[in-house]
């Protein structure tokens, strides 16, 4: 029990940990609004207030985060030219997303002209979606390389070896983490597309709610202390 409490404390000490928790509140609230709006308008209104407050809070938490992509490119550009090429577009898209998200937050809180919100939302979502596409491509490439490496290790496994077993386990754990990243990126891509090109599927409350929770819980899994 104490170990779980310690892990929760470590998780919530991270900015990403707080973000995933508040994101869960936001999208659970969105699903509650959809579920209650016809049967209990008062409860639906309260859930909507929680959704809006959670969304604005997350934007405040992400202040300055656009520098993360720049730092990632500066410190670890990637092992191969292809990886570096994809990383530039992936991180550039994410930087655009977080940078213009500041202006979206300020316009929705009334600091800037509220009419800017729609334009800032479009630019932010476009950068976000572009970044997620390239991040997914990177993850699939790394998963493929991991599978090939695992096969090479297994073919050379003539006898029991703890070192080789540990190496295989490390590759498998990395693959699970990358699949979680793909799930989160695809879910967030759906949310981004709802802003770029509104349509009945992406903009439906259930689609957005489930996508938001998939993204939040995949991120929760990846950030949970091991």
From TrEMBL:
Keywords for the protein's UniProt record, in alphabetical order: Membrane, Peroxisome, Peroxisome biogenesis, Transmembrane, Transmembrane helix
A GO-annotated cellular component: peroxisomal membrane
Subcellular location as annotated: Peroxisome membrane
GO biological process: peroxisome fission; regulation of peroxisome size
Keyword Transmembrane helix belongs to the record: yes
Domain of life: Eukaryota
Main subcellular location: membrane
GO molecular function terms noted in the UniProt entry: identical protein binding
Transmembrane annotation, as ranges: 83-100, 120-143
Recorded topology in the membrane: Multi-pass membrane protein
Family listed: Belongs to the peroxin-11 family.
Quaternary organization: Homooligomer. Interacts with ARC5 and FIS1B on peroxisomes.
Function: Involved in peroxisomal proliferation. Promotes peroxisomal duplication, aggregation or elongation without fission.
Protein name: Peroxisomal membrane protein 11B
Species this chain originates from: Mikania micrantha (bitter vine)
């Amino acid at each position: 029990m104490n170990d779980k409490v310690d892990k929760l404390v470590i998780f919530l000490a991270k900015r990403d940990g707080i973000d995933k928790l508040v994101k869960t509140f936001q999208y659970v609230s969105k699903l509650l609004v959809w579920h209650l709006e016809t049967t209990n308008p008062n409860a639906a209104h309260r859930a909507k207030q929680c959704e809006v407050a959670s969304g604005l809070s997350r934007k405040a938490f992400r202040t300055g985060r656009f520098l993360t992509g720049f730092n990632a490119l500066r410190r670890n550009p990637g092992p191969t030219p292809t990886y570096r090429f994809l990383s530039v577009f992936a991180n550039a898209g994410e930087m655009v997303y977080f940078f213009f998200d500041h202006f979206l937050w300020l316009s929705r809180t009334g600091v800037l002209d509220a009419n800017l919100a729609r334009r800032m939302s479009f630019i932010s979502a476009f950068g976000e979606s572009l970044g997620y596409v390239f991040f997914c491509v990177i993850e699939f490439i790394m998963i493929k390389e991991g599978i090939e490496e695992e096969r090479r290790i297994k073919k050379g496994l003539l006898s029991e070896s703890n070192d080789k077993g540990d190496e295989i386990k490390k590759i498998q754990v990395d693959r699970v983490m990358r699949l979680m990243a793909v799930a989160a990126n695809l879910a967030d891509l759906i949310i981004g597309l709802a802003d770029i090109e509104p349509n009945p599927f992406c903009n439906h409350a259930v689609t957005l709610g489930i996508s938001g929770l998939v993204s939040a819980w995949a991120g929760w899994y990846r950030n949970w202390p091991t």
